[in-house]
Write a sequence for this structure.
């Protein structure tokens, strides 16, 4: 492991050369932020800010377009918020990239760092973690470190629908979905914990590969054939509509997809209200289509818990039942990878901290 200027951790592992970086995200003072609007009021500013965030997420979509596969020099971005009781919420951005050689990783890491600091939404400013101590603080090492045995961790996953009649693909996952201000509940729930707690969202660009696409096409044909079957029950018809919507969303050409993972960790026993309130905020029923909610998944053993935390510290994805279970489109990623946009009065009992500042 090597540190290069400033605050970039470079190492060589099983996946090749990799570099990791971290920044603390700081909120701009409200009066400064409100003056940056193009529109006439704060409501329009919120729309503008959310559009900037969505564009940032979209701009991280980097794949090999010629062959429609993930890039060898793939990248990940992570939003990690940590509550330190009596201190406040620390909001962090982490990034990770891969390269084929040691020389290339140094060049790419510096370019990646410049990119993040150039295009991250200007509603915030980034403070680079320039030392190992600052990096560990933003990364949440004090909570995720495997040597700390008194830590609980869970994954939040989309709920799913199981219909045995859909023989090719009997299980369909729900969607990540949020309203404009859903994230307020996340920050309030996290700030209300009485022990150090962590909320982490990781994104990595990906594609739906040809074999997976053929599987989805076969599933769509299987669902369509149910129209021709006699004595179709009304309940099955309801699930059929849901399955058709899911398959259309996954098979739409040129959609941007990400591997998306959500985790919550806490010192001591997990307070079930924290993942429940977070899960509810990012799987909301909006419009006419209802969602199957979310699932809270826990490690099966202490050893597995340590393995989870180690992988999250390294910004590695934890494999799910199938690869399709972890894939989310751009709209879903935008629903989960949300930053705090505060009213002038702030949020009750929520304090964001920054180097030498409180917000």
């Amino acid at each position: 492991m090597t540190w290069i200027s400033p605050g970039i951790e470079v190492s060589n592992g099983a996946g090749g050369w990799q570099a990791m970086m971290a920044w603390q995200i700081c909120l701009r003072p409200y009066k400064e932020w409100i003056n940056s609007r193009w529109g006439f009021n704060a409501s329009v500013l919120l729309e503008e800010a959310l559009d900037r965030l969505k564009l940032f997420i979209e701009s991280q979509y980097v794949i090999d377009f010629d062959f429609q596969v993930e890039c060898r020099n793939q990248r990940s971005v992570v939003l990690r918020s940590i509550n330190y009781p009596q201190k406040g919420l620390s909001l962090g951005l982490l990034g990770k990239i891969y390269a084929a050689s040691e020389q290339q990783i140094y060049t790419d890491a510096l370019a990646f760092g410049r990119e993040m600091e150039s295009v991250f939404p200007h509603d915030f400013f980034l403070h680079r973690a320039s030392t190992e101590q600052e990096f560990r603080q933003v990364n949440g090492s004090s909570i995720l470190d495997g040597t700390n045995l008194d830590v609980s961790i869970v994954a939040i996953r989309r709920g799913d629908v199981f219909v045995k009649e859909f023989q090719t693909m009997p299980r369909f996952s729900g969607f990540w979905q949020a309203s404009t201000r859903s994230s307020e509940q996340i920050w309030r729930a996290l700030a209300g914990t009485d022990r150090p707690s962590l909320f982490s969202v990781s994104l990595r660009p990906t594609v739906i590969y040809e074999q997976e696409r053929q599987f989805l096409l076969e599933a769509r044909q299987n669902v369509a054939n149910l129209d021709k079957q006699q004595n179709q029950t009304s309940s099955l018809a309801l699930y059929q509509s849901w399955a058709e919507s899911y398959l259309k969303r996954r098979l739409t050409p040129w959609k941007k997809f990400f591997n998306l993972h959500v985790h919550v960790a806490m010192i001591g026993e997990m307070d079930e209200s924290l993942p429940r309130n977070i899960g509810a905020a990012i799987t909301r029923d909006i419009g006419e289509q209802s969602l199957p909610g979310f699932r809270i998944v826990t490690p099966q053993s202490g050893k597995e818990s340590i393995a989870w935390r180690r992988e999250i510290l390294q910004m590695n994805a934890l494999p799910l039942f199938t690869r399709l279970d972890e894939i989310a489109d751009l709209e879903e990623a935008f629903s989960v990878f949300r930053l705090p946009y505060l009213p002038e009065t702030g949020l009750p009992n929520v304090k964001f901290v920054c180097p030498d500042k409180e917000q």
